[in-house]
User: What shape does this take?
Amino acid sequence: MTFDRIAVVGAGAWGTALATALARAGRTVLVCARDRRSAERLRDQRESARLPGIRLEESIAVASVDRELWSYDPILIAVPAQDMRDVALTIAPVLKHGTTVIACAKGIERGTQKFMTEVVAEAVPSAIPAILSGPSFAHDVARGLPTAVTFATRDDERASALASAFGSATFRPYHSTDVRGVEIGGAAKNVLAIAAGVVAGRALGASAAAALVTRGFAELFRFGKAYGARPDTLTGLSGLGDVILTCSSPQSRNYSFGVAVGKGQPPDPASVGGNLVEGLFTASVLVQMAEERGIDMPIARSVDSITGGRTTVDEAIERLLTRPFRAEG
Assistant: This one.
């Protein structure tokens, strides 16, 4: 099983970064923008407005979504989690049966509580869903800085072939069949990153930051186990690895958003230049899913309350610090 012709749907920062990494790995690459005007702009300027300073290699083809996708496999969908279904439905009519469709978003669909591969499976029934996740910033990947990620799909042979197709000297994919575990790590860490940002913005200190991330990861781990994730996945790249990255760097939009909120700014994406903050959408659905299975997630619940305007940062901190003492676990 080999993959030589690969298409990326989504011409934002992550989509163009992945396309650049694929071209570096020697693959034939097509980037599909979601509308003709965006495709024309990218074709002419060879640079995404979301990833300034990174020029697309001339070998990378650019188009709007059309029948040209039929000849590519796999297809990566690099759009926000809440847009995944609409984009998958758009491309479904032009894909051949058995095409691997890789979701590259880290989130859970609001309203349905569906993970990204579930959304793909519903929107494109003939496709083989997969997920790409792990500790990676678009700018690092595009620049060719060393990065490791995880591919997951139910078929181990296919997951291994995907990793081989994407791998290069600076982009190292690992593979897994634990689809749910990979998805949970990527989605839940965004909520935790907001909390870590709040701690930094409130200047609560390094000790508080370490405690917050440790206890937050314990929440992620409990949630993951309840929803069928393997422990080794949760402590791997797409779980703990992504937590380490996004809970400590201003490159993370979720962390930067949390910093702004911690400094007293309203919980509005405008506080980070209007950039997408996936954790804002994931927090409420994560808390709902946790409550349905009796999972204790006080940090995630606090993030949801703060971003939903139901409590202040100071009230949330006081509530967390006055919880009953208990054994660690």
The two ends are 43 Å apart (CA to CA). The longest strand covers residues 28-33. The beta strands are 5-9, 28-33, 61-64, 75-77, 100-103, 108-109, 114-115, 128-133, 147-152, 171-176.
